[in-house]
Amino acid sequence: MKITVRGSTALYTVEQLCQMLLPSLEGNCICRVSRSGGMVYAACRMETATGSTSASSRHKLTQDEHTNVNLERRTLARAVYRAALVHLGKEPAWGMLSGVRPAKLVRAHLERGGTQQGATTFLEREYFVSPQKSALCAKAGKIAAEVHKSLQKGDFSLYAHIPFCPSRCTYCSFISAAGDAFRRWGGDYFRCLLEELAMLGRFREEHAMRARSVYIGGGTPAVYAPAELLRLCKAIQDACGKTPEEFTVEAGRPDAITAEKLAALRSGGVTRVCVNPQTMNDQTLRLIGRAHTAEDTFRAFHLAREAGFREINCDLIAGLPGEDAADFHRSLNRVLSLDPENITVHTLARKRGSTFHELQEESTPPEVITEMLADAESLLTAAGYSPYYLYRQKYTGGGFENIGWAKPGHICLYNVSMMEEIGDIFSAGAGAVTKLTSGQFTRFTNPKYPAEYIASTDRLEVRSRELCAYYQDCSVF
Ligand code: SF4
């Protein structure tokens, strides 16, 4: 779609919306925005091979210029959405909401003194979000507001990244290195990661900060041997000044998990582990390049319970190649039979850089994914889980969501902080992103690839200087 916007700089808003609503429609989208008599007016015409559609929208402006910029974008988006509806044939569940963190709108509403009911009405009226999705957002937004309120000055979360996996899944687009790369870089990488954690620990100590939650993610952190995992946990404890109250390790693929590794994690203070099957269908597991079976998931899960873990998360993916709604339903029921505290339901995204994308594998039709997600919601709700964080995929047609579900009292603080961008996150490792929200929202990104990360000798000095400058500027202390 060739997009032209006159009278406004909100081209990106229109691009995002067209990409989400009509990813493969060819043609022209011509928009015009104007202001007069205290009103903003927007008009959109879409010209395609099957004909042209037009729509308009208007909104009364306020005294506040900042609010008016947002109003202008929303008025323009509404005109584009109305023009697109004719091509879509039905109203999408997320309406015209294109952001990846929709629960943020609910949190902002609640923090301004609004109610959950008011937030759902706002999403439905202003963004045309369906009542079902707005209710999910309201629940996740309420938890985010509670977590935000519980954070104190100087609180932060700590993330350590392990970019290695035993092999590469076909749908994976992360910068994760498989097999040989671990043998080649694993040792040096580990040393550099520990050095970075020590630097962050010194910073924490000098500024009297407090680590509320820790997450070791990947990749597959369990590629390392038990002794190294224990050393990593000790390095985390040193960086935090004590054992963190919430300490998650994304142990990851069941074939990498052993009783010895779980014992090392337990004695290293880890409180929560992720055992991620993605599907409980062996045929699909082979198809997506994972060298484990559903039986391995049961084994790894029981080993984690025997090791003493009372907080376990399992990840599933809706829309894996070759799977229909019945396959997904079976997988979910098998995972539910394990009774984990958290279940995260992702939607498969066709991301550039994945084998799945390069081979142009056929994607699951959106209506089947819709059925899977609705099924997940009813099964998980009936089993006593609630949505506690939610974000949407940029690259799925329809902008489907990923949802973390938790039993009462078992939310993962790190996931909420990370996904809702509340609280500061210090990150160590290749490609890791430090996100700071205490003052102006700021990100610091580490070199992407393990080799690059190892070779960047001034990395620690630079990061330490950047952190000092940030906290001085925003006068947090
Ligand atoms: S386990 Fe995760 S990070 Fe590793 S290859 Fe598979 S999808 Fe990628």
- Helical stretch count? 16
**What composes the largest sheet?**
9 strands, mixed
Bound ligands, each once: iron/sulfur cluster
CATH topology of the largest domain: Transcription Regulator spoIIAA
Please provide the count of β strands.
17
Q: In CATH terms, what is the architecture of the largest domain?
A: 2-Layer Sandwich
Q: How many domain regions?
A: 3
Task: Tell me the structural class.
Answer: alpha/beta
CATH class of the largest domain: Alpha Beta
Characterization of this structure:
- The protein has 477 residues and is of the alpha/beta class.
- The chain has 3 domains: 1-90, Double Stranded RNA Binding Domain, CATH 3.30.160.100; 94-143; 147-462, Transcription Regulator spoIIAA (2-Layer Sandwich), CATH 3.30.750.200.
- 44% of the residues lie in helices and 22% in strands.
- It is built from 16 helices and 17 strands.
- The strands form 4 sheets. Strands 13-14-12-11-10-9-8-5-15 form a 9-stranded mixed sheet, with helices on both faces. A 4-stranded mixed sheet has the order 1-2-3-4, covered by helices on one side. Strands 6-7 form a two-stranded parallel ribbon.
- The longest helix is centred in the middle third of the chain and has 27 residues, at 180-206.
- The radius of gyration is 23 Å and the shape is globular.
- It binds iron/sulfur cluster.
- Residues 165, 168-169, 172, 174, 176, 218-220, 252-253 line the site of iron/sulfur cluster.
